[in-house]
Amino acid sequence: MNIFYITYKLISTLALFLGIIPFVIFTVISGKYGKGLRERFGYIPREIKRKPSHALRIWIHAVSLGEIKVAKSIIDAIKVSEPGCSIILSTTTEHGRAQAKEMFPPEIQVIYAPVDVFFVIQKVIKLINPDILIFLETEIWPSWIIESRKKGVKIVLLNGRISRRSFKNYLRFKLFFKRILESFDHLSMISEIDRERISMLGAGPEKTSVNGNAKYDLIIDQVVSGKAEEIREKLQIAESIPVIVAGSTRTGEDDILLKSYKKILKEIPEAILILAPRHLERVEHIVRLLEKEGLEYHLWTEVTVPMKKREKSIIIVDKYGELFDIYSIATIAFCGASLVPLGGQNPFEPAAWSVPVFHGPFMDDFQDARLLLDETGGNVVVRGLDEFTDKALEIINDRDLLKKKGKAAREALLKNHLAAERHAVIVNNLINDLRAKEKWIE
């Protein structure tokens, strides 16, 4: 057995026993992570135990809400060709589990993921007894993977991605990760960059492929006809008035955007700015910035109530879950966390509405989307105040260029469409391998 895995088993087991009492105390005091504690340690409901039936069983692990949405797309695609398969979905967060329970029918059983300690994993694998184990995005758990391989389970990574930050950390333990990656039957990655990174960590090229980001498949379905007209009417914004939407902004960006907006107003005095911070606790900070700049504003929750008239040209979004629909009225959109080195935000949300996408140079977490936008020309890269101002004015004032950029942004999103189906093909191939070897009988 690989010395690295033996070391990992010893360390993870020791960490479990040394940390269990402090963890329980923390859970009792804070109220966090208490739910599903028994499941996390391997005591999953007995009814999940595999029945004598020979139906194919697939275990999918999705950490939280984002991965669960990806899982939904992939499960739907798998069910088209394998409607009779049995599916277990594991998740890590309480919110993710709650959403999964709402999102999936009762026949898809949802559990908390087990802690990655070998004897806990062995117990859960014995109960679930999967034929195929699917990890999503960047989930690489050594004990879970190696113990599953020992039992002959087919293992696949779907929608795989490795950020630049994670890649640097993984490289320090390349020999260890090479052993883990050898246990995978296939790694279906989001982009060519992700494929190159996983290959450099030790994945054989014959086991890797590039199939796009299934997370983006869901975005197109969220576009609702008439939504823009509904929001414009609610905010009393005529279609001819330019609207700048800055979404999921972070500290260090709001000040730049507000200063730029003041310059834009000198040339386009009717322009509207809708500012949506990534974290609502920053609303007060933005209010102070506005007061410092001498700018008046509305809060979204105030101006969207019945009979409330909009009088100010700046709106601060102080409610979660509104941003995607707000992009529908944008003339141009800025994706936050990109002027500062925080990885960016999803540029395909405004692109779905055919809105030109502005972003800074730091888009590491959405590199695949950035590359597609680069190809079509649907994005505008800005690095600071003056560049944002100049390019915003250029595009807003040129209606043909504005339309061209918006069309190109949506085209980039459509290039990625049906990624979930492409990832599901990998699973179907593994199913065919199992049939050929007669591991299970229908």
Largest sheet: 7 strands, parallel
**CATH top level of the largest domain?**
Alpha Beta
Write out the strand line-up for the largest beta sheet, numbering strands in chain order.
Answer: 3-2-1-4-5-6-7
**Ends apart, CA distance between termini:** 35 Å
Mean pLDDT: 92
What structural category characterises the helix and strand content? alpha/beta
Q: Approximately what portion of the residues adopt beta-strand conformation? A: 5-15%
* CATH T-level fold name of the largest domain: Rossmann fold
What is the percent of helical residues? 40-55%
The rough form would be described as: elongated
Number of continuous helical runs? 20
Low-confidence stretches: none
What's the domain count?
2
Q: CATH-wise, what's the superfamily of the largest domain?
A: 3-Deoxy-D-manno-octulosonic-acid transferase, N-terminal domain
Q: How big is the Rg?
A: 24 Å
**How many DSSP E strands?**
14
Can you tag this structure with a few keywords?
about 450 residues; alpha/beta; Rossmann fold; 2 domains; seven-stranded parallel β-sheet; about 15% strand
Describe the structure.
With 442 residues, the chain is of the alpha/beta class. The chain has two domains: 3-8 and 27-43 and 51-213 and 418-436, Rossmann fold (3-Layer(aba) Sandwich), CATH 3.40.50.11720; 222-415, Rossmann fold (3-Layer(aba) Sandwich). The protein has helices spanning 3-30, 37-40, 65-81, 94-103, 118-128, 142-150, 164-171, 174-181, 192-200, 217-222, 227-235, 254-267, 283-293, 300-303, 323-326, 348-351, 367-376, 385-397, 399-415, 419-436, and strands at residues 57-61, 86-91, 109-112, 132-136, 154-160, 186-189, 208-210, 243-249, 272-277, 298-299, 314-316, 332-335, 357-359, 379-381. The strands form two sheets. The protein has a seven-stranded parallel sheet with strand order 3-2-1-4-5-6-7, with helices on both faces. Strands 10-11-9-8-12-13-14 form a seven-stranded parallel sheet. Helix 4 (94-103) links the parallel strand 2 (86-91) and strand 3 (109-112). Helix 3 (65-81) crosses helix 20, helix 5 (118-128) crosses helix 6 and helix 12 (254-267) crosses helix 18 (385-397). The longest helix has 28 residues, at 3-30.
